[in-house]
C-alpha cells in the first residue's frame, strides 16, 4: 500500500489574516468552512478543486490533536505550499495582488528551467506560498549545474 497525500494542515496564528490572504489568492473559502467558537476561529476546512483538503488550525486546536505540538520560534516553515493556476498571466496577477496588499515576496515571478511561470509570496505566518502555471515545453531549458 502506498500512502496518498490528500490533506495539508497549516497551524496559523491569525485566522482572519490567513483567511484574507488565501481568499486574495483566489482560494474559495465559504463561511460554512469556518468553525467559530465563543473563543474565536479554530478550524477552517477547504476542499480544493483537485480534491486536496486544506485545513487551517489554531495552535489551541493543534495541541488537542498533536500531543507533541510545539510553538515555532520564527516565521514560516521550510515547506513551500504551491497552487497550480491556469496561466502564466495568473501567476503575475496573483503575485501583484498579494504583494500590493503588503505580503512579502520570496520570489518574484520568473521562468524556471522546467518551463512554468512561478512566484512565491509569504502568507501571514511566513509560510512560502507558490503559484505555478502549467509547464510549457517550448520554455524548458537544462537544469542548473548545482
Can you summarize this structure?
The protein has helices at 15-24, 59-65, 88-100, and strands spanning 7-11, 34-37, 40-47, 53-57, 81-84, 105-110, 118-122, 128-132. It is α/β, with parallel strands linked by helices.
Report on the structure:
The chain is α/β, with parallel strands linked by helices. 21% of the residues lie in helices and 29% in strands. It folds into two domains: 1-68, 2,3-Dihydroxybiphenyl 1,2-Dioxygenase, domain 1; 75-146, Roll (2,3-Dihydroxybiphenyl 1,2-Dioxygenase, domain 1), CATH 3.10.180. The protein has three helices and eight strands. Strand 7 (118-122) and strand 8 form a beta hairpin.
Q: Name the CATH homologous superfamily of the largest domain.
A: 2,3-Dihydroxybiphenyl 1,2-Dioxygenase, domain 1
Structural class: alpha/beta
Q: Give the terminus-to-terminus CA distance.
A: 34 Å
Low-confidence stretches: none
**In sequence order, what are the helices and strands, one letter per element?**
EHEEEHEHEEE
Mean of the pLDDT scores? 91
Specify Rg, calculated over alpha carbons: 17 Å
Helicity, as a percent range: 10-25%
What amount of the residues lies in strands?
25-35%
CATH architectural grouping of the largest domain: Roll
Separate helix tally: 3
Give the class-level CATH name of the largest domain. Alpha Beta
CATH topology of the largest domain: 2,3-Dihydroxybiphenyl 1,2-Dioxygenase, domain 1
Largest sheet composition: 4 strands, mixed
Shape designation = globular
- Side-by-side strand order of the widest sheet: 1-4-3-2
Whole-number count of domains: 2
Number of β-strand runs: 8
Amino acid at each position: 500500500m502506498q500512502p496518498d497525500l490528500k490533506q495539508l494542515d497549516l497551524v496559523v496564528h491569525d485566522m482572519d489574516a490567513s483567511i484574507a490572504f488565501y481568499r486574495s489568492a483566489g482560494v474559495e473559502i465559504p463561511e460554512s468552512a469556518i468553525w467559530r467558537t465563543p473563543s474565536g476561529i479554530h478550524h477552517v476546512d477547504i476542499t480544493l478543486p483537485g480534491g486536496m483538503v486544506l485545513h487551517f488550525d489554531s495552535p489551541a486546536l493543534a495541541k488537542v490533536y498533536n500531543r507533541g505540538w510545539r510553538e515555532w520560534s520564527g516565521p514560516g516553515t521550510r515547506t513551500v505550499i504551491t497552487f497550480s493556476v491556469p496561466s502564466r498571466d495568473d501567476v503575475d496577477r496573483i503575485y501583484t495582488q498579494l504583494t500590493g496588499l503588503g505580503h512579502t515576496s520570496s520570489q518574484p515571478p520568473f521562468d524556471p528551467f522546467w518551463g512554468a511561470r512561478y512566484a512565491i509570496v509569504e502568507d501571514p505566518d511566513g509560510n512560502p506560498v507558490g503559484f505555478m502555471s502549467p509547464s510549457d515545453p517550448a520554455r524548458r531549458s537544462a537544469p542548473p549545474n548545482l
